[in-house]
Structures are given as C-alpha cells and as structure tokens.
Specification:
elongated; cell membrane; about 80% helix; transmembrane; single chain; mainly alpha; membrane; about 350 residues
Length: about 350
C-alpha cells in the first residue's frame, strides 16, 4: 500500500466486511419475530405440499450448502494469511523487525469473513427453500388440474397413495385431494384450488417477510461483493504490472472466484424463485383454458386475480430487484471503476 489509491481501496475493503457482518447480526436480532412468523407459515405450507417434498434429500443439500462454503473460506483465509506472512518476512531489514505483527492484527478481521459466509448460507438456504415450495405448488397444480401434462420429476415416478376423501371434509390434505384428481367433481376440485391459492398467498407473504428481514443485509452484501470484486481485481492488475509474485496472483484469482460465487449465492436463488413463481401464472392460464365447470372457473378467476396482486420478488431495501439483471449492471460498473482506479494509480506513480 505505497500509494494513496491503494490505501483507499484497502480501507473500503476492510470497512465493507465489518459493515456487512454487523448488518447480518443486526438483522438476526431485530428480525426474531419475523423469523417466527416465517417458520409458522412455512410449516403450514409444508403440511399442504408434504407429499411432494423429499425431506432427507433437502437436509443433505442443506448440509452440503453449509460445509462446502465454510471449508472453502477457511482454506482461502489460511492461504491469504500465509501469503502475507511470507511477504512480511521478505520485507525484514533487521532480525528484530516485527513486520509480521501487522498481519496478526488482521486475524480478527479475517474471522468476520466466517460471519459473512454464514449470512450468505442462511439467505441462500432460506431462498432455495421457498423456491422448492413454489416448485412443489406448481407441480401439484399440474398433476391435479392438467393430467395430460407430463411432469418430469423423480418424485412423481412413484405411484401415489390413494386415500378416500369426502367432499365436505374441511381438514383434508391437498396430497390426498390431488391423488383423486381424476375422480373429483367440480366442487371438490374448487376446494383443492382454493387451498392452492391460500398456499400461494402464504408463500408470497413469506417472500415479503424474507425480503424485509434480509433487506438491509442484502443491500450491504451486494455493495460488499461489488467493492471486493473491484478491489481484488485492482490488486491483481497492480501485481501483474509490477512484482509478478505468482503465489499472490493466484491468491487474488481465488478471491475473485470466491467473491463472484458470493454474489451468485445471493442472486441465483432469488432469480430461480422469481422464474418459478412466474410459472404459476402460466399454469393457471392453461387451467382456465381447459376447464368447463362454472364453480371451478370462479375459483380459477379468483386465483388469477390474486396472482396479479402478489408478485413474489426480492428487493434490497426497495432500491433494486435482486435477479440476474443486476449482474450485468454490477460487472459493467466494476469494469468502469477499475479503469478509473488504474488511471489514478498511474497518476500517483
């Protein structure tokens, strides 16, 4: 950090990690009641679409989603500390110089990366869970009201258990109703569709709860991803133009990959959920074209009106929608500011 530009970039790099970690902890403390409401709604949704959810498989995926990122960031932090200790040792002029003390003071800062990674995992796991539930809801709608449409899902290859359900039962599960979809009359199918509409409404409210719960944290995480990608690319180019330390260069490349994956861990689950929720509109439109029962047609109309009101999408404190469109804006911004920083670096010598 011999130039003013390098010092400013490093200060931003450190500050944004601290700010993102504090925001994650703050959202966790303040959003306790929101979390309870979210868990209550998700339990009710799972009771509705439980027959279309592999719990064991979901737990395995959640474990993988936890272990792989934590193991990766631990290895990366170890490599980073080792590289800086090596650089500090090479800068010693006298034997009693303690150049490595600066690196040791950074270790508490490095531990904040673990907090930041846990925040990413928590958000990604929550969002992927909502996406799976939207997917299960759409699958249930297809199998119940569009029997001519083949659903290519591994769970649907098994023969469903058929349970006798009375039309006037108010506590019948949707999976039982769906298994008799070919034998139901219009009234029973309308009850099933009403249940699906209530489930969709509950999922839409869950998306709003998650968006409000993680809103500030998502905004700061997006800013941190932007600044980290910018700073890491800047230091990589500076190293390539000057010392060309191969170990340091490869370390910066790995950091760029890690920060890019952090960004995708936020954007991709939100994008998939948005796409899957949009599929519900297409399914309802297709159901509307195929039905001929007046009672069922009325419920389809109500469901359609509900879809116009509830549009499940994630936003970062209402400032921007979190989907793949944000990637192009961020990477173009990184390229622009990277050119500006390089110009400042050349000006400062």
């Amino acid at each position: 950090m011999k130039t003013a530009t390098s010092k400013i970039v490093t200060a931003l790099d450190v500050s944004v990690v601290v700010l993102a970690s504090v925001a994650g902890v703050f959202c966790g403390i303040v959003g306790l009641n929101t979390t309870r409401e979210l868990n209550g709604r998700l339990r009710k949704v799972d009771e509705t679409i439980n027959g279309f959810k592999d719990v064991k498989r979901e737990r395995t995926k959640a474990l993988i989603l936890l272990i792989v990122p934590m193991l990766s960031i631990t290895i990366l932090l170890g490599l980073d500390i080792g590289t800086w200790l090596r650089k500090a040792a090479s800068m010693k002029v006298h034997e009693d110089d303690e150049t490595d003390m600066n690196i040791k003071w950074y270790i508490p800062f490095y531990s904040l990366y673990l907090v930041l990674t846990v925040l990413h995992i928590s958000f990604a796991n929550t969002t992927f869970g909502l996406w799976k539930r939207f997917k299960g809801l759409n699958r249930l709608l297809r199998t119940s009201f569009l029997p001519h449409v083949r659903v290519k899902e591994p769970q649907m290859t098994k023969n469903p258990k058929i349970t006798t359900v009375k039309a006037n039962s108010t506590v019948s599960s949707s999976s039982s109703l769906a298994s008799e979809s070919y034998q139901q009359n219009g009234k029973t199918k309308s009850l099933l569709l009403k249940l699906m509409a209530e489930t969709h409404e509950s999922l839409g409210k869950c998306v709003k709860l998650v968006s409000s719960y993680y809103g500030m944290a998502i905004l700061i995480i997006l800013v941190s991803c932007f600044l980290h990608l910018l700073a890491t690319a800047y230091f990589l180019l500076i190293e390539l133009f000057s010392n060309k330390d191969s170990g340091y260069v490869w370390l910066q490349v790995m950091w760029i990959i890690f920060h890019a994956l952090r960004l995708l861990a936020v954007v991709e689950p939100c994008h998939r959920l948005t796409v899957e929720s949009t599929q519900t509109i297409h399914i309802i439109c297709e159901i509307e074209r195929t039905i001929h029962d007046s009672i069922l047609a009325e419920e389809v109309k109500k469901f359609w009106q509900q879809l116009l009101v509830y549009e499940p999408r994630f936003s970062a404190c209402g400032l921007c929608m979190v989907d793949r469109n944000i990637l192009a804006a961020m990477f173009s911004g990184i390229a622009t500011y990277l050119v500006i920083l390089i110009q400042f670096q050349k000006t400062n010598g």
